[in-house]
Design goal:
Blueprint (H helix, E strand, L loop, with lengths): L8 H8 L11 H11 L10 H24 L11 E8 L9 H20 L3 E6 L18 E9 L2 H9 L9 E6 L4
Antiparallel strand pairs: 1-3, 1-4, 2-3
Helix pairs in contact: 2-3
């Protein structure tokens, strides 16, 4: 957790007050538990159902707290004035399908460090690694012939600045392809 993730006093009070608030949407608990299990964040199931229910309730509470905090902060941060937003689509390198989980975690960590460096230098960047499974409508593969493995959203003054950020991404040194697309104002 970095210094931007620390709660203010108001946020901490809001988190403590969640027990008095409205119930979470139906199905949220099951979705939260399933995601935590997929990501290996839940231990082996125990026979103590009360403990499992308590853990699931805690997960739902934390999720709801995130929603409350996001609403109090006004949702997603507004883009920097005068900067355009771009998406950097990262198409997998040829060797990614054969990588071990440990190798993939090392690569993801390298990209995370790169994004943190972009932020330390004053840039705005957010991104996610995508699951391998694709639910696709339309043609069977993107034009590159490689699967889309992740993306970053960056703010930049112009196309040249967005390309400069993309060129600094470690994805290129691993043989991946990056497609840079401006996000249209809607």
């Amino acid at each position: 957790m970095d210094d931007r993730d620390e709660l203010t006093a108001d946020e901490a009070r809001a988190l403590r007050a969640l027990g008095d608030g409205p119930a979470p949407p139906a199905g949220l608990e099951d979705e939260t538990v399933a995601r935590l299990a997929r990501e290996g964040l839940l231990g082996r199931p125990r026979r103590n159902r009360f403990g499992a229910a308590l853990a699931a309730a805690a997960a739902v509470s934390l999720f709801a707290a995130g929603l409350v905090v996001g609403e109090r902060r006004g949702g997603a941060p507004a883009p920097d004035a005068g900067l355009k937003r771009y998406v950097l689509f990262l198409y997998d390198a040829p060797d990614e399908a054969a990588m071990t989980p440990a190798d993939m975690e090392k690569r993801v960590s390298e990209y995370r460090d790169w994004a943190r460096e972009v932020r330390r230098n004053g840039g705005r960047i957010e991104g996610e690694k995508l699951e391998a499974e694709t639910l696709r409508l339309g043609p069977p593969e993107p034009a590159s012939g490689r699967p889309l493995g992740g993306y970053f959203v960056v703010s930049a003054a112009d196309d040249a600045a967005a390309l400069a950020v993309a060129k600094s991404c470690p994805h290129l040194k691993h043989g991946g392809t990056i497609e840079v697309r401006a996000i249209a104002k809607t």
